Amino acid sequence: MTLLLLSLLTERTYHQVALADVARSSWTHICTIGIVLSVRRQPDGDWHLLLAAGPARLIAEVIPLIPIARPPIGVRVEVCGITRRDRRHHNQAEIHPVEQLTVLP
Question: What angle do CA 2, 33, 99 make, to 5 degrees?
């Protein structure tokens, strides 16, 4: 299962979308850039990364199946993954799961 998952992740095409535009984007697989404001573990084992770019905010969720090192608060990151609406949180747009995370200078 893990090898199949890694194979699928390396073949994806991601579209660069500004963090403020994620909710309006029609792309499913995206990358966006933001500053990490918080990192919180959820009861289901996921980690919520709250990202910001100016006044825009976005949750990016790291899941146990795709282990990604959690970045420190205050760093600038690029996250790539699947966009979706979280029905449990007021139908907000989010990246879930995060498939790649890069700390930027």
Answer: 5
CA angle in degrees (0–180, nearest 5) for 59-61-67: 150
Decide the pairing of beta strands 47-53 and 56-62.
antiparallel
Q: Strand, helix or coil at 3?
A: helix
Q: Is the pTM higher than 0.70? A: yes
The range of the structural domain enclosing residue 13 comes to 2-104
Q: Is the peptide bond before 64 cis (omega within 30 degrees of 0)?
A: no
For 2-29, the pLDDT digits (tens) are 555 555 556 789 999 999 999 999 999 9
| Count of domains for the chain | 1
Which CATH number fits the domain that encloses residue 38?
2.40.50.140
Q: What are the C-alpha distances in Å from 102 to residues 43, 78, 105?
A: 25, 5, 10
CA dihedral for 40, 55, 73, 11, sign (positive or negative): positive
